[in-house]
């Protein structure tokens, strides 16, 4: 039989492969709730504007409620022949309520219908993702609070650079994630305009009230151009961009957890809940969750690319290519949410090993900058000269196979005769971090002030 929606123009059924390539129901069935919400708002508006009767509206509402129940209890029969979620729901509505179902699509096209459904979904995804980010920020903040004074090596080039505190390091991610969260909040605000009522592309001759449907669906108002309304997918691109950036930030933290978990570093421990064993090597405790967060970031980046490439050549307005947008977005939204949850779980579970980190913080002449700063502050050396003197002292320590603090005063004076014994006070990792009191620096007193700041910020969310 020919299609129930456009059968008037068609006399034979589609080829089976045509049906297979055309159908999106396996993917867009996830838009059922949004589709029903859109139809409720649309039918209310049609009745309020005198385009359908109150009786039709009531029948449509009753039928949609039954469809909703059938979907919830798993008895709804999805059909590939009916292509997508919009036609599946409308066809079932017709079976339930008859003629009024046919009036629901007045002044509407699947083009504005899918645009509103998808916006509703992406808007919710923004809210969910922002909430997950907040949970992760709280987990990081709790670690920062517990370890405001715990010294660890700070790295550049993955080489020990200067001592910092673990709390400071945790707060770096709190800052990064706050920008990630803001990106989702901004994207949501920008996408919150309702395309419903643009109809196929040109608007409609029916006396509809787009402000009414926009309000009913929680939008700030209707979109202003019917062509743009059905063409735009940049709201989904913004979500994917924010998700890709967030995924990259998570991947960097995951990479650090992987490094910290190695027996060679041993900076943190994860419990059995967040690690896996090896089927052959009994000693292993692998940070699989962290590796998967790192790995899955590639999926999110890939889905951003999928939609960018999908859209780049499309003329206005709708082309069927755009049906491919949902799979990309759903996958990225699921992935970023799962990665955020897993990262929050790992961060909460993580036990820093203070002794290991302190030992590593002192290794590699990590207080060489403190020594140079002392030469500037106490002896009045220009920093460049102090750097040179310190370099010679580091070379000496390296030749002797000892730390800077283990050199004898006579050794230091052999390089720079004016050095006095109180230089040793700045060579410990504790004094090094305590001295970094510049705004944004790692001194524990700063870290505690920042913790208070972030506690306030996050409490307001
Ligand atoms: N399933 C379609 C999609 O997701 C709905 C819109 C169909 N519109 C059309 N003109 N064929 O894009």
TrEMBL record:
Keyword annotations: Amino-acid biosynthesis, Arginine biosynthesis, Cytoplasm, Lyase
SUPFAM superfamilies registered for this protein in UniProt: L-aspartase-like
Compartments in which it is found: Cytoplasm
GO BP of this protein: L-arginine biosynthetic process via ornithine
Fumarate lyase N-terminal domain location: 8-302
GO molecular function: argininosuccinate lyase activity
Pathway recorded for this protein: Amino-acid biosynthesis; L-arginine biosynthesis; L-arginine from L-ornithine and carbamoyl phosphate: step 3/3
Family (UniProt): Belongs to the lyase 1 family. Argininosuccinate lyase subfamily.
Database matches in HAMAP family: Arg_succ_lyase (MF_00006)
Protein name per UniProt: Argininosuccinate lyase
Organism: Futiania mangrovi
């Amino acid at each position: 039989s020919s299609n129930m929606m456009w059968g008037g123009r068609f006399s034979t059924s589609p080829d089976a492969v045509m049906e297979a390539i055309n159908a999106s129901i396996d993917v867009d069935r996830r838009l059922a709730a949004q589709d029903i919400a859109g139809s409720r708002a649309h039918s209310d508006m049609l009745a309020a504007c005198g385009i359908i009767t109150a009786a039709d509206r009531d029948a449509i509402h009753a039928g949609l409620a039954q469809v909703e129940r059938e979907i919830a209890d798993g008895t709804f029969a999805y059909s590939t022949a009916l292509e997508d979620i919009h036609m599946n729901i409308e066809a079932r509505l017709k079976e339930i309520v008859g003629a009024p179902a046919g009036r629901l699509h007045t002044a509407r096209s699947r083009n504005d219908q899918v645009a509103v459904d998808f916006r509703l979904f992406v808007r919710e995804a923004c809210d969910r993702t922002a909430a997950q980010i907040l949970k992760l920020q709280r987990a990081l903040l709790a670690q920062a609070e517990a370890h405001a004074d715990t010294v660890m090596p700070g790295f550049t080039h993955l080489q020990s650079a200067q001592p910092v505190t673990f709390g400071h390091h945790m707060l770096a991610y709190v800052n990064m994630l706050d920008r990630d969260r803001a990106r989702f909040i901004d994207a949501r605000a920008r996408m919150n305009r309702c395309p419903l009522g643009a109809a196929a592309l040109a608007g409609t001759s029916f006396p509809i009230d787009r402000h009414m449907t926009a309000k009913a669906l929680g939008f700030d108002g209707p979109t202003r151009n019917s062509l743009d309304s059905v063409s735009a997918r940049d709201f989904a691109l913004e979500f994917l961009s924010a998700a890709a950036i967030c995924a990259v930030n998570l991947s960097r933290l995951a990479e650090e957890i992987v490094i910290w978990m190695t027996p060679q570093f041993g900076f943190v421990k994860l419990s059995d809940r967040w690690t896996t064993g090896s089927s052959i090597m009994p000693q292993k405790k692998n940070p699989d969750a962290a590796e998967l967060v790192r790995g899955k970031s590639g999926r999110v980046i890939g889905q951003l690319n999928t939609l960018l490439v999908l859209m780049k050549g499309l003329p206005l307005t709708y082309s069927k290519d755009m049906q491919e947008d949902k799979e990309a977005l759903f996958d990225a939204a699921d992935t970023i949410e799962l990665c955020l949850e897993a990262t929050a779980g790992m961060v909460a579970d993580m036990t820093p090993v203070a002794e290991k980190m302190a030992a590593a913080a002192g290794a590699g002449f990590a207080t060489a900058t403190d020594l140079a700063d002392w030469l500037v502050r106490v002896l009045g050396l220009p920093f460049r000269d102090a750097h040179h003197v310190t370099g010679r002292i580091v070379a000496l320590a390296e030749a002797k196979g000892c730390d800077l603090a283990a050199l004898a005063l006579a050794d230091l004076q052999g390089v720079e005769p004016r050095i006095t014994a109180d230089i040793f006070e700045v060579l410990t990792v504790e004094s090094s971090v305590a001295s970094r009191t510049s705004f944004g620096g790692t001194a524990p007193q700063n870290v505690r002030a920042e913790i208070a700041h972030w506690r306030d910020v996050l409490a307001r969310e």
